[in-house]
Amino acid sequence: MAKYVAFRLLAAIPLLLAIAVITFLISVAMEARGSIAGQVCGEGATPECISAVEEELGLNDPIPVRFGRWLGDIVSGDLGSSLLDQNTAVSALISERIWPTISIVSFSLLIGITFGMLMGIAAAIRPGGLADRTISVVAAGVIAAPGFIMGMLLSWGIAVELGWLDPVGYVPFSESVVGWLKSITLPSIALALPTIAIVQRQLRSSMANALQSRYVLAARARGVARTKLIGRHALPNAMVPTVTVIGFRAAAAIGLTTAVEIVFGIRGMGEMLVTSIITRNVTVLQGGMIVVGLTVITVNLLVDISYGFLNPKVRLSR
Amino acid sequence: MTGATVASGPEPIEAPLESAAESPRRRFWRRMFRNPLAVFSMLWFVTLVVSWLAPDVLATHDPFKQDVTLQRLFETPSADHWLGTDQFGRDLYSRVIYGAGFAFRSIFIAMSIAVGVGVPIGLFSGWKGGRVDRAIMWVNDVLFSLPIVLLAMAVIIVLTPSLTNAMIGVGIAMSTRFIRLTRAVTLAEKEELYVDAARITGISTPRILTRYIVPNLLPALVIQAAIISGAIILIGATLSFLGIGANLDDPDWGVMLNRAQSVFRQEGVWQIVPAGMALVLTVLSFNLLGDAIRDALGRDAGNNALTVTKRVEVAPAQTEHAADAVLSIRDMDVEFPGQGGKISEILNGVSLDVRAGETLGVVGESGSGKSMTMLSALGLTPAPGRMTRGSVQFDGRDVTNLSEAEWAKIRGKDIGIIFQEPIAVLNPAIKVGSQIAEPLRIHMGMSKADARKRAAELLAEVRVPDPERRLDQYPHEFSGGMAQRVGIAMALACEPKLLIADEPSTALDVTVQGQILDLISEVQERHQMAVILITHDLGVIAEAADRVLVMYGGQVMETASAHDVFLSPKHPYSRALLETMPQSHDGQGELPVIAGMVPSATAWPTGCRFAPRCGFATDACTSSMPPLERVADPAQGDLVQADLIRCVRHSELGLVGGTA
Amino acid sequence: MSDTSSSRPFFSVNDLHVHFAARSRLFRETPPPVKAVNGLSLSIEPGRTFGLVGESGSGKSTVARAILQLVDIKAGTITLDGEDVTNVPSGKELAFRSRVQAVLQDPFSSLNQVHQTRTIVGDAITRHFGVKAGADRDNRVSALLDEVGMSPEFLDHYPYEMSGGQRQRISIARALAVEPDLIIADEATSALDVSIQSQVINVLKRVQAETGVAYLFIAHDLEVVKHMSDDVGVMYLGYLVEKGDAERIYDGPAHPYTEMLIASIPMPNPVVQAERRALRQTFGTQPGGGIAEPPSPSNLPKGCPFENRCPVAMDICREEMPEPTPGHHGGEVRCHLHTSGPELGGESVVHFIESQKLSSPAGSGSAV
């Protein structure tokens, strides 16, 4: 197992490199449209300003040289500074914005995986039964509703109409644990609802496959009781594709949290990324992408490691 | 043997049967229109398409016309403004109608890129395989795992915000989905023999791809496209909502929600509803459509190994059980509901007895009902099938109507079962030792340590080398022959009174088959069990069975001692089966054949089910179904052994036979 | 072979080797290649049938795929009518395909579900004779259907509307469409029920009698192979361990593995089978009572791969792979018994094994 994990870790290195290349290409593409220096100098930029900025940012060097320099900076933790405000380091900006986002995404995943699995198993036990049909209809509806619509409805219903929680804002964990929890509850639920539905649907279908398998029939023919057939024989095998889907959903949630943050007025990574696009602040976007890329790779790694636990074939063949 | 029972010489030219299967296309549309959710989504699309192509027909106002009179802002639905107005007094209903055009434009742009880029790359990668494939898929997996919203943002910042640019980004991101799907299907189809066959025929590669692979890829592609269309709309709306998609004045659903977002806490939740509902319903109908297409294309799923069909009153059997039999079945019928309320009768009037220390061989071709007989006797009839008549007695106890919980106490303890596919019946995620220990722990109440010790002894008993080490291995580390030994060990674990072996050696090599048969007869002798051996191989039956039951078309055709069935078969089908085997035939001439094919369970012939293929059939055979009759034992003059036969002509034909 | 004396065989495979390289991976040792076929030679004359038998993993299907240009050949040559067809260049592929055709195992997957019979068989006619889809082509397909015992109504049937036996006959019709000289039948009857299998076998034999086509008939069922073939080759783990005249091999196998295979066929007669069972139990069980499994094809021993399952193995069998020596059936056998130990000189091993069994009771089957 340790060997397997070590191998997966090694395999993540080229993945990181690939994300770095994609991210770097954004600035190359933007520059091809003459945007970066123009962005720094602002409206009505003079040619002098442009060439000065290009000199300062090293935009005149050959691309491979710039990539090497840029990569070296990133590895040493320097993500550059904001194009709009040379005094703001992107890394400082991110370290300020990342905590609300991490809080919401992880809390939403926790809710989503827990409830999604429970409901998936409930639906799979009796396909076509009342529980299955009810859950399926609700899940289909929930998947179709984006998190930000759910967020607005929750904010209006729970916060504005009922007054149970604050409709907007984020309280840092260091300030007040209860306040933090209260502030991330609604955004997390909004983001978690589609996750619940997606996990539920996947688990239901892979449970159905596992329950149709010969080994479950054989176990039943050996007198294995119903609860054990579900929990011991079908579930571990059904979890393999479900974990894959959870991984994809985790990555998607990082992107989709953006809109939820806007709804709840939370100044997180998402809000930072949107602003950076509107203001064409490419260094901030690149910094954000690197962080997101790292997170996605971590998620993939966790998924791969769970494969190892769930599927002995994977574990032993490495 | 004489070839009299079967056609000799060139067989007649075969013509298709009347009732050909329903074509997949017809079945598809029948299922689609019977699914209310599919009908709902299709109707919703019609509405959307009209809104897109002719918005003025449906819209009541100019979607851009502002009316900033104070009382005209943030209206709720009224006769003039069916869905109210927004913060500029614009008619929300008309804006929602016009929004359909934006939605379809988004799908069109993103989907063209996603399919146009994704499918060719996927086809290429899957077809090429090897290093090229691995390289492409590696890059694709990197892009695949990045959030789509983020990739779209990267494109937008380069190209400046607009709905078109956003959709270019989404299309590129979504192409990874199509690459994955196309490549997976291509890779799988490439392994199919029909592709080899096409190559052998000399068909060129481009033609194989377009004429052979793509048609098989299409269903999966359509399902994927439906679901991805939903996702495209969702992401497009999200980007517009974030202000980096459609123009902030456009009647785009995402933009409308963006506008609503800043005011709903003050002006009421209604502002979210019109665009929100349009968005959710559209995405929902895409998803429902995808699901409906998949369901309509696929086989009927929904029943699993846990599903127990609701019990019906089982009509009692007409005849007495044999008192000394371990397992005794009388007059068992099993039915499956089919398409359009048609009922398939899978088993009809099956009766059998097996005694302690005796091996009953059950032989028949595929579709004869031999495996179904055993599953149904043990209360394991696969849903939605059910037993509708008959009675089953096990070890002197009537078990016809036992509950699942009562059955669980008998199965695995008093009845052991060995299956055909030895590896598929082992759980891939559980160590072999724990699987063998499972019945010991359940039925014998053994501790974990005791069960493990006993499991090792059992493995040694079935001659698995190095049992201690093998206990900690997983099923995929076993060869087929070794896995079948594990299956036998599991079946024997609780020293059952009855062992049922369903094609135990069919999936194995011929040299391994013999070892498995030896092992079964060895453990039978030691434990004095009753054994039921189900197989299509008459040679296996000849070696292992004391008595033989010949099945055809869901019925018992003949029961007799192995000696009689092989050396003086009374039923024309038994004789024909023996004669068509190459083993029975010396020399190089043509083999005797049984003309025609096994009838389908939805269309049994009237009268004797074998009559259409039988060389001896007369009018009497096709007019009514022959009963399963007892045959008197000429030597003993009584019916002790209860030889049974289902043939109206058996007494006259018996005289013709006698080839021993 | 019975008539290898004639100058040049019509179709021959000489010293064929096929290896499947394992995927090389970063940071890890590349596993050894799977040696699927090791030095196989055979030849077939027009109108005759060479039967190739072996268990799963013996490499018999790989031989078919190598001849059909579906896998890469590591070494060896294949010739057809004096022409080298080991690796057919793409320019000559169509000409090669028009001479060598195949009927594959699985009647469900070897026909494309989306096409009707008229297209499945007709595509081959279009490709090789340039006859476009239409009445003319349909007539030719009908004639082929007639040849395999099916009525013209099957023209507009899809594979899912036909039974396994019918589908397999469509496969035969497709192969016949190009009027080939050689048809490779790879487990062509294995997936069929007994009563249907005999129908397909008869069709194959009738076609051979009418057209003079040669068959390479590959199957795991020895009885079917015996019925079909003039000559037979037996494969074990990529080696052709014995080949020769079919009747004579079955009557007197010169290789212990062939004898084991023949002894393992269950006969549909309880009296006969009771005797055969005792013979069969000579094999497979080791003196200790354990079960010997065949070695992995990616890790073959340096000696004879059958050594660990052989009831009459000698010391030399562990050390080196025997070379082919002439057998009494006009073919060859790869077994040390013929050159070392008892020096049987190509004769049947049946009596030798019987005598060994009598002298060492530990070698017999049921012991526990």
Count up the helices of chain C: 12
Q: How many beta-strand elements of chain A?
A: 0
Derived structural class of chain A: mainly alpha
Q: What's the CATH class label of the domain at 94-270 in chain A?
A: Mainly Alpha
Physical arrangement of strands within the biggest beta sheet of chain C:
6-7-8-3-9-10-12-11
What is the SS-derived class of chain C?
alpha/beta
Give the termini separation of chain A.
Answer: 8 Å
CATH architecture label name of the largest domain in chain C: 3-Layer(aba) Sandwich
- List how many beta strands of chain C DSSP finds: 12
Q: Can you characterise this structure?
A:
The complex is a heterotrimer of chains A (318), B (660) and C (368). Chain A has 318 residues and is an all-alpha fold. Chain A has 13 helices and no strands. In chain A, α5 (90-125) crosses α8 (177-211). The mean pLDDT of chain A is 87. Among the domains of chain B are: 33-61 and 76-297, MetI-like (MetI-like fold, Orthogonal Bundle), CATH 1.10.3720.10; 314-355 and 365-403 and 551-583 and 590-660, Rossmann fold. The radius of gyration of chain B is 34 Å and the shape is elongated. In chain B, α2 packs across α12. Helix content of chain B is 49%, strand content 12%. In chain B, a hairpin with a 5-residue loop joins β1 (325-337) and β2 (343-355). Chain C has 368 residues and is an alpha/beta fold. In chain C, the strands form 2 sheets. In chain C, strands 6-7-8-3-9-10-12-11 form an 8-stranded mixed beta sheet, with helices on both faces. A 4-stranded antiparallel beta sheet of chain C has the order 2-1-4-5, with helices on one face. In chain C, α3 crosses α4 and α3 packs parallel to α5 (164-176). The longest helix of chain C is centred in the middle third of the chain and has 18 residues, at 194-211. Chains B and C meet through α8, α9, α18, α19 and α20 of B and α2, β6, α3, α5 and α6 of C.
Structural key phrases:
heterotrimer; A: 318 residues; mainly alpha; MetI-like fold; 13 helices; 0% strand; C: 368 residues; alpha/beta; Rossmann fold; 2 domains; 8-stranded mixed beta sheet; 4-stranded antiparallel beta sheet; 18% strand; globular
